[in-house]
Amino acid sequence: MSVRKWSFYLGTIVCVALSATSAWAWVPAHTNNRTQYHQQARIRQGIRNGELTRREARRLEAERTKIRRDERRFRADGNLSPRERERLQRERNRFNRDIYRQKHDNQDRH
């Protein structure tokens, strides 16, 4: 094969590899944004219909802020390790359970 063909194949392989890598990195972030949006919507809905007291809502917002702060800190080096990803997922799962518990604990604002 000529050098021109090799460089073409090498360029194609590099482009495909970079595309696959960037697409893989985009999916968790997109899913994460959707999850955060739904969590925030659940909190707002709980405030609107009185299922959450002001104190519960403030506590949930503080927990949400802590998770976002942890994620920014973990991503500061440009890489999210599997251990960090697992820890964030545990925190998000716990946060979802906390939202559910606070909305269904028979304490309401009315």
Offer a few descriptive terms.
110 residues; mainly alpha; 82% helix
Write up what this structure looks like.
This protein has a domain at 28-103. Helix content is 82%, strand content 0%. The protein has helices at residues 3-48, 54-75, 82-103. The chain is elongated and about 80 Å long. The model is unreliable at 22-27 (pLDDT under 50).
Low-pLDDT regions: 22-27
Give the radius of gyration: 21 Å
- Quick one: biggest sheet? none
Distance between the termini: 78 Å
The ordered string of helix (H) and strand (E) elements is: HHH
General shape: elongated
Coarse structural class: mainly alpha
Tell me the β content: under 5%
Query: What's the overall average pLDDT, rounded?
Result: 82
According to DSSP, the number of beta strands is 0
Alpha plus pi helix count: 3
Please estimate the helix content: over 70%
Write a concise synopsis of the structure shown.
This protein has 110 residues and is an all-alpha fold. It has helices spanning 3-48, 54-75, 82-103.
List the helices and strands and how they pair.
Elements: H1 3-48, H2 54-75, H3 82-103
Helix pairs in contact: 2-3
